[in-house]
Structures are given as C-alpha cells and as structure tokens.
TrEMBL record, chains A, B:
<feature type="domain" description="PPM-type phosphatase">
    <location>
        <begin position="100"/>
        <end position="451"/>
    </location>
</feature>
<dbReference type="InterPro" id="IPR036457">
    <property type="entry name" value="PPM-type-like_dom_sf"/>
</dbReference>
<dbReference type="Pfam" id="PF00481">
    <property type="entry name" value="PP2C"/>
</dbReference>
<dbReference type="InterPro" id="IPR001932">
    <property type="entry name" value="PPM-type_phosphatase-like_dom"/>
</dbReference>
<dbReference type="InterPro" id="IPR015655">
    <property type="entry name" value="PP2C"/>
</dbReference>
<protein>
    <recommendedName>
        <fullName>PPM-type phosphatase domain-containing protein</fullName>
    </recommendedName>
</protein>
<feature type="compositionally biased region" description="Pro residues">
    <location>
        <begin position="14"/>
        <end position="27"/>
    </location>
</feature>
<feature type="region of interest" description="Disordered">
    <location>
        <begin position="1"/>
        <end position="63"/>
    </location>
</feature>
Amino acid sequence: MSADWFRRRFLPRGPLPAPRPPRPRASPVPYRRPRFLRGSGSSSGPTDASRRPDARPVRSPVRGRSLPWNAGYAEIINAEKSEFNEDQAACGKLCIRRCEFGVEEDQEWLTLCSEEFLTGHYWALFDGHGGPAAAILAANTLHSCLRRQLEAVVEGMVATQPPMHLSGRCICPSDPQFVEEKGIRTEDLVIGALESAFQECDEVIGRELEASGQVGGCTALVAMSLKGKLYVANAGDSRAILVRRDEVRPLSSEFTPETERQRIQQLAFIYPELLAGEFTRLEFPRRLKGDDLGQKVLFRDHHMSGWSYKCVEKSDLKYPLIHGQGRQARLLGTLAVSRGLGDHQLRVLDTNIQLKPFLLSVPQVTVLNMDQLEPQEEDVVVMATDGLWDVLSNEQVARLVRHFLPGNREDPHRFSELAKMLIRSTQGMDDSPIQEGQVSYDDVSVFVIPLHHQGQGHSSH
Amino acid sequence: MSADWFRRRFLPRGPLPAPRPPRPRASPVPYRRPRFLRGSGSSSGPTDASRRPDARPVRSPVRGRSLPWNAGYAEIINAEKSEFNEDQAACGKLCIRRCEFGVEEDQEWLTLCSEEFLTGHYWALFDGHGGPAAAILAANTLHSCLRRQLEAVVEGMVATQPPMHLSGRCICPSDPQFVEEKGIRTEDLVIGALESAFQECDEVIGRELEASGQVGGCTALVAMSLKGKLYVANAGDSRAILVRRDEVRPLSSEFTPETERQRIQQLAFIYPELLAGEFTRLEFPRRLKGDDLGQKVLFRDHHMSGWSYKCVEKSDLKYPLIHGQGRQARLLGTLAVSRGLGDHQLRVLDTNIQLKPFLLSVPQVTVLNMDQLEPQEEDVVVMATDGLWDVLSNEQVARLVRHFLPGNREDPHRFSELAKMLIRSTQGMDDSPIQEGQVSYDDVSVFVIPLHHQGQGHSSH
C-alpha cells in the first residue's frame, strides 16, 4: 500500500461517488460452524430451540476428536442478537515447506504440505460483525496466508540469526554484523510473517466479499506455536491470557476506538476530508449541545494524553469521531473495534463516509518463550472472544481454571470441558462468579491450550 | 495547529523556496549558565582550562544555596565537542494563581506570583544541539508557559474531579456523570497542562530564534511536584529514574529516531513529499549498495514490528530516513532525537528537506503518587541528560546512590555532592564503575531530588 493509493482510495477530489452496488459474480460464502465441531450437534444455521440462555447449547468437539496439543474448545451462539453465530474458529497443524509445491488446499484441517520442513500449530478465533461472511472467510484463509508468508522467509529462519540476504547468491558479503547490531532475531521474521499474513488475508477477504456481493468484517486472534515459541497475534477485541499456578499474564491487548483514540484522531487531523464535515475529531466527556456553545469544556485532541478545556465552537457540536465509553464506544457511530479484517465497503449509515481508512488489519504480536517458561502441569493459554471478557475478568477466569483442572486430571477431554464451563459461567450457570444481570448475550468462543509437555517436542528437520 | 497549516507549512506545491536568510530583529540570546550556579566558578563562556576530563570542572551550587526540596545539582561541560555547554537547567517554586495579575517575570528563580493559590516545585534539564540558544530560551521560558497553562485550568483542579464546564456560569447541567464515566482525574488536567506548555514553549522558541537570527533545538525533561504528586514530562533522550532501597523505576522513556521509528516512517509514508525523493523511509540492516539490487534483503516498513525480506529496487539505495544504531541513530542523517523544542529552521545539509515535521514537542508524562509511595529516608529521583546514561546504567546509578547517601547523612549539601560524584563517575574518576574507554565526552547535567518528607507538605489553599 502506498500513500498515493491511500489518497486515491479514500480521498476523492470531487463529490464522493455513491458506493458501488455490489455486483455478485461469485456465490455467497455459505454459513457453517468450524469443521472440528462436526458430529457435535446441528452445524448449519442457528438452532431451532429458543435462544433463552439456558436453552442455547454450548457446543464443543465430540469426545474422541482431539485438537492440536489436546486443546479444548467450546462456543455458544448469541441471544438473538443476530441470526447466525458470527464467531468462527480454526485450528490445525501448520506445515512449512522449504519450497513451494503448489499443493491444493482443499482441506480445512490444515494438513497443507507434502514435504514439511518446520511444523507448528495454529489456533484462531474470529469475531464477525455485519454478517458472518468475513469471519468464515478468515477462518478459511488466514492459515494459508500465514503458511505462505512463513514459507517466503523460512530459509532465514534456519540460522541462529536471519541473514541480511535471503538467498546465498548475493555477490556482496552478507554483513552479519549489521543484523547482529540491529538485534534481529528469528522470531522477528515470524512476527513479520504474522503481520504480513493478516494484511494478505484482509485483501483476500476484500476481494471475495466484493465478488460475492457480501459485506462484513471480523476481529482476528491467533496463537501459533513454532520452534519452541508461542506467538499470539491480535487485531480486535478478543483476548488471550496465560494462566499458571501463580501468574496471570495478558498475551494480547484490545484494539478499540478507545484504546486507539490517538491514532484515529491523528488520521482525522491529517485527512479532515475523511470526516466529510459530519464529525468532530475532538473528544469531549459527552456529545455537546447548543447550550454548551461559548462555554469552556473538557476536551482531548490527538496529541494529548491529558485533558484540557476549550471554548466550544459550532463545529464542536458535530457528532464525535469516537463516541461512548467502554463497551459502548463506537468509531464514527458505527464500529466497536479499530483493528480487524474486512469492512472494505463499510460506510456510516446514509453517508459516503468510509470506516476502512481508520481500521488497521495489522496485529500486535507477543511472544512466549516456551523453553524459558518451563510449563507446569496445569499451565494453559485461554483465548476467547469479547463475549467472555465482557463478564469475566482475567482473574476470575484464572480462578475458574485453577479450580477446575486439578479435579479433572483423568479426563482426556478436560480442556474442552473447561472451555464449556467457562462459557456456562458467562450465562450465569454453574455457580458462576459473575454478578447478577451480567450474563453475556453475545456469541462466545473459547480455546483452552495446555502448554505442559508441548514446548519441548517441536520438530525442526 | 491544523492539518491545513501543516500542509501549507511543510508541503509547498511548487519547487521548495530557499530557506529564508535569518533577518535578526532582536539581539541574540546571551550565553549563560543556570543562575543558581552563581558564585560557583566562571559562569560565562567555557573555561580557559584545557578540556581534558580531569581538568574540566564539575560545577554545582555554592554551599549554602539550597534548591527546592534541597535537591542537588551538578554539571560538566563537554570535552571540546562545542564551544559552550549546550545543557541548561532551571528549578524553582511554581506558584499558581487563581487569577491573572500580570506580574512581571523578571526573575529566573521562579517566584512568579503575588497571590498564590497552589504551590509546586519545578526542576528542568534541557540538552541543546546546534548551539546553546534553544536550551537557554527553554530554561528561561518553559516554567512561565507551564504556570500559564496550569492557571488556565486551576479552577478545574480544585474539585476531586474536574467539572465538565470550567466556569460555573453554564446554563446547562455540568454532567458530572460523564466526567466520572470517562475516569477524568485532576492529574489529567496537569498532564494536559504539561503537554500544552511544551507546545507553547516550542512556539515561543521558534519566534525568538527567528527574531534573533539564531538556530538550534533542545530536549526537555521536567519534574514538577503538585498536590502530592510528582509529574515527570520528557521530550528527548534525557532520563529520570526513581531510586529506592529495593527498587529502581524508570520515570521516563527516551524519544529517538530508533524508539519512534514507526511514527516517523508513517509520516513519510503519508507525506512522501517530505523526503523530496532523497531518502527512503524503509529500514534495512545497513545502507544498501548497488550490489544489493535485485537481492532479497531484510527490511521493515512503518506498519511492521517484525522484519521481512524484500527484493531491492533502485529507490531502496537512497539514504535511509533513519540511519545507524543506538547512539549513532540519526533522523535524516542529522538529528539524534525525535522530540524536543526548537529546530524550526533545521534542514538536511545542502537541501531544503526540513526536520521539524518529523519532530514532536509534546512530552510523555508519568505520575508518581507521593502519598502512596511513602518515601523513605534515601529515596531520590535522579534526572540527567544523555551524557550520564550513555556510560552508566540505571542499576549502576542506583548502586552509586545507595552507596553514597548512607555515609553522608550529616552533610546538608549531600545531594549536590552525590550529583557531582555521579558526574565524576562518567569521567572515569572516583572508582567509577564504567568500563575503560567508556568516559563521557558530552555535556552532563544531573539533578538529585530527595523525596523524603516532601510529599506530605504540599500546600493547597
């Protein structure tokens, strides 16, 4: 993406053209649940049962089907917020080949390679909005993008330190001292590959949705194991935490209009055209009214962490670029997340104002060094969409994990049972620690990934 | 500042105009050392003595002169890097009045007010470059800007929580629930005032330098006590740390072309015109050469935390926007810091390419709650320009502090003695812990601020 491209795409000189009516050239993305749920209940469309919390089924893989690392999974559909469960999930083995062989990728279960060179594992959650299509496309696609991006740099991942030049055919010396000085490590290539994969996947989704005349977007949270490290890449408001006996460690941050306020305000400062005169980029404690004109009120602009006062002018009465607090915060009155995939066609209702220029598809990546961690018997990573974290804190989830696991050591399916129990806790069942009236009406999806005995066995041929 | 202003100022449409030759209308800013050093040795111009490390004097206030909170101070001039000591310092009492009285500010020692309402203290270090003028102007000016910005919001600082409307004359309800929901606290107003003060000071310096036909810039590091809290605001590569018996806590981060790489690369992505076709915004492990053309080499762009490989094109051979590592990293081959005051006229040598659009004057502010901290006998904040931190780590400074203070409890001047000892340690004297050959040839300035018995005594009438 170049700056010129950005300007052409988002800053038309004349009056904005009407959004192109979608011209479907491909068939729409069919709704489905993750394939690893097959056999665990109805898998297409919502259940016929009433959507009362106690009637919505909590689904998880059938007993006997094991996910990578014996991870657990469970999900529940929302309470009639949308027709479909807009969450999606994917997991599988990730086989990185040294060369491209052009193998067809017709299986969702990620056995993507014929000649494997490096093997990893992959777990991903996608929380869709504006329809289920983007999340389904992401679940179908992101692992392939990731594999492709990793294969493009895999030669650089073999050495202790990535070489300055990828192929050994450079006629000039490869200058390892410069790579050394910059402190570039193998894991930086994996981080770069994750960043590129999210962007590539975003482009694929944009093309596919346009072709099929569909719309929508989704968040993406990925955990990937590779060469003794666990990489967690997040774009959106899902969350991953590490739970150990004596430690609860966040492995991701949430990206919302609130947490990315300064970045978003700054873009509106640089390109005021993006707001088409309909919004103010300034933040106030509440939306201003005519009565506030001429008064000094609290405000923040893009360069400010603190607050100050300004004299209210007429333009300050416009609808705010970011409005509302916490769960209610919305970007341009429309979207609750500021990073994710898709949303290429999303506009503010009844306007031509686009959301996409304010959204980032690039994830933040954190790295867990499994060798240094020396995972113990009941150390797990819990990944979940925002429906879980809206009603349970990290500490509450950690307490539930620590309470559940020791009593269920013999059950080979215990991590899915734990995931189911976590979801039931969001519905006010199972002696849930949540407060009265705080049940989750959202889609909720949870992976529980056990770390014990996993870090060591990484293969590297 | 508006986006239009930014574009007019930095993005001329036609060929760039030659930089205006400075037309001095005011007399140049006279060189001086901080006034609180009066009587402690020669105070104007460099010493006549040779600049060998052992011959350059370490200066500190004369015995008997006490700085706010009995803080210590010491400085040393560089080893012939420049004619003058480009570091500057200021400290004093900060009296915030409820109304503007227009009192003349003719004293550097900051007794700025007739009717005080809130009282704080202020310590500041400025590390100049391109001449001493900007740092001197900042030392003369920033406290006044800060006082003015605090006085503009002081009414909002009286209540437990700032009111939505500053004056009580609003005809609409002041909606405390919105301020409550946003979690806006009194300290956010102080942070906002610090942010505004740095920007106001930057504008003053720009005007003054243009009027006097001088050039230059400086970093700024400020510690300010107010209502039981210590605020540390930093723009540049100076550093403040808290040293306690069992803890060393950084109170600031450094802002350099390396630490702000993504912000700087992003601006060049948005406005490629700023590079005038002379620089590449991409980062490579080293500057590329003709031999690299067509090869796949390691690179990073603005959206990447990780690294990837790209096929080298001709435009990648240009000089990099950010070049060099660590201490040697330079923005546009010119500047080692990415935040600070001044530099309004600074251009890349022999070009019209301006540095200023890439620089921020806004500081990062951290807050130390003195009441919660319960400072002990030998808890201090050490503030110093980069000359100290280039050769001593936070831990080394902490060890020197902990070793020095207990043995010097009786000396009322011990914090200045400690500051002098820290500076001598950068010169390889006094059993210095630094490694052979690692002496500092830079200007070095140090404040040591004792915290014991200080948090409690804050006045608030």
